[in-house]
Amino acid sequence: MAISIGLNPSDLKKLVQSIREVLSDTVMLSVKIRGFHWNVVGKDFWELHELFELQYKALNDAADVLAERIRALGEKSPGSFIEFTRLSQIKEVDGLLSPNQMIEQLIKDHESTIQRIREHVKNLQETNDFESIDMLTGRLYEHGKFAWMVRSYLS
Ligand SMILES: [Fe+2]
């Protein structure tokens, strides 16, 4: 049975595509940060290990909310790395990075994610899907906070 929540059916595809892309960036960034959590070394080991844990766990929780919004809109959520890598703009890293390289990567990743979400939020204004717009706006806040946290390690 088709969903009937006051949204234009022709907007649904646009909405779902946006959320799928944000979900995929969220999952890929979570995996990347978890790798940093495991592999970080150096004098700031403990702090960065903990900070990275806080971030990948928050992104995991956010991924769940995003995926379930897609389901509430009546569509299928991406659920495999084949799909996530196709839809994500997060660049994976190959090999071990220094703490500074990790921090620089994460600043860039949070910022590019923010830029992409901001475009989505702008393009979805006319859909009246306030729930999805609010959810995506919340992602802007969190990535902004996380970018600030990692940036604070640069002197
Ligand atoms: Fe751990």
Distinct compounds present: fe (ii) ion
Content-based structural category: mainly alpha
Principal-axis shape equals elongated
Give the mean pLDDT: 97
Query: What is the assigned CATH homologous superfamily?
Result: Ferritin, core subunit, four-helix bundle
Main sheet summary: none
Query: Kindly, what is the distance between the CA atoms of the first and last residues, rounded to a whole number of angstroms?
Result: 56 Å
- How much helix, percentage-wise, in residues? over 70%
Instruction: Please give the radius of gyration in angstroms.
Output: 16 Å
Annotation, overall tally of beta strands: 0
Architecture (CATH level 2) name: Up-down Bundle
- Domains, number: 1
Number of helices: 5
CATH topology: Ferritin
Low-confidence stretches: none
- The percent range for strand residues is under 5%
Q: Secondary-structure element sequence?
A: HHHHH
CATH class: Mainly Alpha
Protein topology:
Layout: H1 9-39, H2 45-72, H3 81-87, H4 99-124, H5 130-151
Helix pairs in contact: 1-2, 1-3, 1-4, 2-5, 4-5
This protein binds fe (ii) ion.
Residues 37, 53 line the site of fe (ii) ion.
